[in-house]
User: Fold this.
Amino acid sequence: ASTLIAPEVEEKGGEVEDFEQLAKKLEDASPLEIMDKALERFGDQIAIAFSGAEDVALIEYARLTGKPFRVFSLDTGRLNPETYRLFDAVEKQYGIRIEYMFPDAVEVQALVRNKGLFSFYEDGHQECCRVRKVRPLRRALKGLKAWITGQRKDQSPGTRSEIPIVQVDPVFEGLDGGVGSLVKWNPLANVEGADVWNFLRTMDVPVNALHAQGYVSIGCEPCTRPVLPGQHEREGRWWWEDAKAKECGLHKGNIKEEDGAADSKPAAVQEIFESNNVVALSKGGVENLLKLENRKEAWLVVLYAPWCPFCQAMEASYIELAEKLAGKGVKVAKFRADGEQKEFAKQELQLGSFPTILLFPKRAPRAIKYPSEHRDVDSLMSFVNLLR
Amino acid sequence: ASEVTEKLDVVEVEDFEELAKRLENASPLEIMDKALEKFGNDIAIAFSGAEDVALIEYAHLTGRPYRVFSLDTGRLNPETYRLFDTVEKHYGIRIEYMFPDAVEVQALVRNKGLFSFYEDGHQECCRIRKVRPLRRALKGLRAWITGQRKDQSPGTRSEIPVVQVDPVFEGLDGGVGSLVKWNPVANVEGNDVWNFLRTMDVPVNTLHAAGYVSIGCEPCTRAVLPGQHEREGRWWWEDAKAKECGLHKGNIKENTNGNATANVNGTASVADIFNSENVVNLSRQGIENLMKLENRKEAWIVVLYAPWCPFCQAMEASFDELADKLGGSGVKVAKFRADGDQKDFAKKELQLGSFPTILVFPKNSSRPIKYPSEKRDVDSLTSFLNLVR
Assistant:
C-alpha cells in the first residue's frame, strides 16, 4: 500500500514541480527558445491562440523554430473587417490554416434576441464574452494538451508578477480533462510591448491595419476603440515615422569590383569591423557554423563588403554592439562576402545586398536574416535578445 | 374525398394568384396590412439591413403587431449591426436574429479560409451563412415578407408578384405550398422607396451615405460608382431643411390678427388660401367624421393650415395643383383651418405641431399618417400618397 501511494504522490508532485522548475529555467530565455521548447515538448497537441493583434509575433517565432505548429483563433462573429483580413494575410504568408472557432448559433441567438446586439454597453461584457469567446475557447482547448498565448506582464500591471513563462493552466481543461490537463505557455510574458513591435517590424510580420489607426487593443469591433495619442504613439510609430534606409545591391558590387580590377591594386579598400570583439570568419568557419544545430553560443554575423558605404556607416554601431555582448553568450562576427565569396554567400547565406546580418541561434538549424535597415545598437541588441 | 381535397388545394393556389391580381395596384401599405391581417403571428418581415427597412415602417403604420427577423451572418458590416440596434429602439421591437451553425462555419473557413468566395464563388459561403439559417427561420412561419423589387432584377422583372406561394422554401406545415411570400414593394421604384424613407424619417444604414447601394456581408459589399449611387444617396447630403411656422409664432400672429380685427371692426381680415374647386373645405365636424371612419370610400389628404402662415401660402399652388390632378382619382384633397379656436383640438386630435401639417387618411386605416417632410411640391406629395393611400 505504501509503495502504491508513493509513486502516485511522486508522479503528481513531479509533474507540477516540473513545470515550475521549467518556468524558472526559462525565465531568462528568449521568446524563440521558449517557443522551441513548447513545440518540442507537445508537438501536435499544442496550439497558438492568435487574437489578431500583436500576438502575431507568436506565429513568427513558431516559424523561426522550423518546427510544425498549429494556430487557432476565435471568430466571434463581430470582429473588425481588418481583423478578418489579417487572418487571411497570415494564413497566406505562413502557408498555414488557422483553426477558427465560431460561437454556437443557439447561444448567440438567445442572447441577441433577448438583449439585443449591444447589451455589453448596458450590462457589461461578461455574458456576451462567455457566449462568443470563452465557450468557443473552452471547446478549442479540450482538443489540446497545451496552448500558447501572447500574454505579457506589461499588459496587466496589476498582475505583473503573476505571468510565468509556463504553467499548469489555472482555469481551463485540456484533452485528458481535469485539473492539470492543460499547460499554458506565455513566451512573451517578459517582453515589453515596444520590443514586440520592434520585432514585428524588423521581421516584416503582417499586422492588423487597425494599429495604424491608433488601436492598441484589438478584439470585437464594438468593444475596440482607438486610444489617446500618448498611448498609441509607441506602438504605432513604425508605420508612419519609418524612413527607408538604403543598401548596396549586388549589381553595384559588380561595378565596384570591376573598378578594383581596373586599378590593379589588390585590397585597395581599407578593412572595416576591426575590433577585438568581432571575430573574422573564414569560409570554413561559416560553413561550420551552418552545420551545427546546437551551438555553445548564438552568433551574429555581418556579411559585408569593405567598399560598401552602408556597411561603413554601420561599422561603429556593430563594433559597439560587439563590445556590449562580449562574455554575454553571443559571438559577434564578420564575413567578407564580396568577390570570390559572393556566389557562396548568395546560395548558402541569404545574401541579397550589402550589408546582410544573420543570427545563428543556439538551437535553430537555420540562420535568421535581419531584414531591417535599422542598424543602430539598440535595434540590433533588441533583435539579438529576442532570438538568441 | 381526394378529389375534394385536390379541389381545395387548387382553390388555395388560385386564391393567392387571384389575390395578387387584386392587389397589383395596391399601395405597399395596403399590401402589408392585408398580409398581417391574414397571417397574424405566423408571418414575419425579413430585414436585411438595407432599404428594406421600409417594410418595418409600413408594418408600423398599419398599427398591427408584426415580427421581424434578420440574418446575422457573422460577417456583416459594423454599420449594419448598429442599424439593427437603432431599428429595434426606434420601433420598440426585438428582431429575431438567425446565426449560422458553428460546425458548418468552422468546417468551411478551416478548409478554405475566410475569403474563399473571392476564389471559388459565394455559393458555398452563402449557403452556410444565409440560406440555411433562412430556411430554419422560415420553418417556423407560414408566410414571410421581403423587400424584393422588380427594378432590382431587370432580368426577372415581370416575375415578382405582390404575393405568391413561395417557390423555393417550406414553412411551418412543411411541403409544397406551406409558405406564402409577400413582396409589398415589388412594384415600387427604388427612388420612391428612398423618398418614403426620407419623408418618414426612417433610420437607414449609414453605408448608404458612403455610396453603398447593395448591402450584405462586409467582404461582398462595396461602394459603387457615383452614377449608380447618386439616385439613392442624394437625400442625405443634398437635402436642405425648409422651415415652418411654430405654434408660438401663431400666437403672436393671432394677437396681431385680433388687434387688426378690433381696429377695423371686421372679420376674416386675412384672405383665405387653398380656394380650388377640387379642395374640400372641411369643418370640424367633417374632420371628426373622417377620423371615426375605419373604412373610407376614398383616401383623404388634408392640410392643417393658417391662412396667414407664409409657408402655407408658399405651398398653396402645389396643393391646388395636386387637387386638380387628383380630381376623380379616388383620393380626396381637403383643407382644415387649424388656427384660432381650432388650434387646441388640432393639437390633441390631429398631430398638429406646426403650420402646415399634412395628414393622409388611408382607405383602410384608422389613424391618419402625418407627412413629416418639408418637401411640399406636387411630385413629392403625389409620391407619398401613392405609397400610403
In short: The first helix of chain A runs from residue 2 to 25.
